[in-house]
Amino acid sequence: MVGCWLLWRYPALPGSDDALYLARGVTHFDVLSFAPNFPGYPGLIWLARFFAPWSQTPFQALMAVSLVLTLTSAILAGAIYRRLTGDEEGAFFLSLLLLLDPLWSEVALSGLSDGPGLCLLLAAWLAALYRRPALAGALWGLALCVRPSYGVLALVLAGAILHRASARRFVIPAALVGLVALLFVWSANGVAYFLEGWRFFIGHFTIWGDAVGERGQGVSWFSAFSRAGVSGPLWGLMLISGLIATPSLYRRRPAMRPWLLLTVVAVLWCALAQNPRHLRHLIPVIALGWGLFISAGFQSIRQRERRAILTLLVTIQGIHYASVSLKGSTLPPIQQAIRWLGHHSSPPAQLVSHHAPDLLRQQLPGYGIIDGYYSGDAELAMRDGALRLTSTRPHPETSVNLCTHFPARLPGDTPLWLIRRHKACH
Predict the structure, then answer these.
(1) Pairwise CA distance, residues 190 & 145, whole Å
(2) 149 close to 281: Cβ distance less than 8 angstroms
(3) Would you state the torsion angle of the CA atoms of residues 144, 146, 150, 156, taken in this order, to the nearest 10 degrees?
(4) Is the pLDDT of residue 285 over 60?
């Protein structure tokens, strides 16, 4: 039902440069030409190419993969929880809480690798729990090909799987999938792929990635939670309550120890190495955290009280989901901006933006698009009367004119404001 609602309400349009780059890769894979950007996500490209014959555009194929696998990840999380604990009711509530989280829908619509990567990792874990180590290994390898930045989580999961499964039957399929992916990227870019990888790694941690040591003022996971609306306090309640109760969980439910370890690793990796500007990085934390909350947070209360609390949480989540999905725009903020600029401003004109400059160049060919990262060029253009897209709400006392506001479609989107210094917008 959630998937049908998303397909009916939201058009398949890219909302970021990353989505644009991935869509390019569906038709022609070349990491050096940002088709897509490093690390290339070969597994996601393969899956999108599978859907491509039934899609009108490359991005539709990407969104199909993202939509199906992101929503499936909520079901898989519940299935794993049930397998580990035997708690059918808790598994049902876990899947509901995830499916009704607006961030899950935003990730599903994004066409990016976060949801599919998580889905395949969970599928590998479930296959291992059902004693299918070869299938688990193949899915684990494919998960890394889809979302390589889940590597830390994947290594912890591999340790948990190998603790109970045959190493040879798990490792060989995983290695074969990895070898195919390596040959795929090598055939396109050769050794230059690895040089680009080093540049990307350094850039992520020192320039554009907003890792913990490079975050600017106001960029933090605390501020990210506050941007999430009702979901933010729910996530905070879930994490704090679950982590407080984990010592008791560790002693009483040994089967949940891998889940607990993965939750801690996901929280640390997200806090230290992921960009708080993008809430989508939270989805492994949310999936694991809700399971931890359900398992650890209700050990000393009766079943009826537990059911009442979980029903209340699902109701709050459902009301929040309905409110944001019904009242918000059906377009990502950057697509709202593209549509507005196409109708209200007459090119040739200059536009400064930190957000999706390549997507703007592609869809607004009559405009001179200046990447806001290059502050000197941006400042000169603003002095000459260029429009600017910004994610910071302009202060009413500053010497800029607010043209319009492009609200977030769902939590996880970044709202945008269109401004112009000194001059009128039209």
Answers:
(1) 17
(2) no
(3) -30
(4) yes
Judge contact between 272 and 212, C-beta under 8 A: yes
Q: Which amino acid, residue 105?
A: S
Distance between CA atoms of 13 and 280, rounded to whole angstroms?
Answer: 17
- Domain ranges, ordered by start, for the chain: 2-327, 333-421
CA 48/CA 12 separation, integer angstroms: 14
What is d(CA 382, CA 377) in angstroms, rounded to the nearest whole number? 9
pLDDT above 70 for 295: yes
Cα dist. 5→11, 54, 67, 82, 272 in Å?
11, 20, 11, 27, 35
pTM: predicted TM-score of the whole model, two decimal places? 0.92
| Residue 215 reports pLDDT greater than 50 | no
Residue that is written with structure tokens 């390898």 in the block = 141
DSSP code string of 55-92: -SSHHHHHHHHHHHHHHHHHHHHHHHHHHHH--HHHHH
Is the CB of residue 188 less than 8 Å from the CB of residue 197? no
Closest CA to 106 of 363, 281, 313, 362: 281
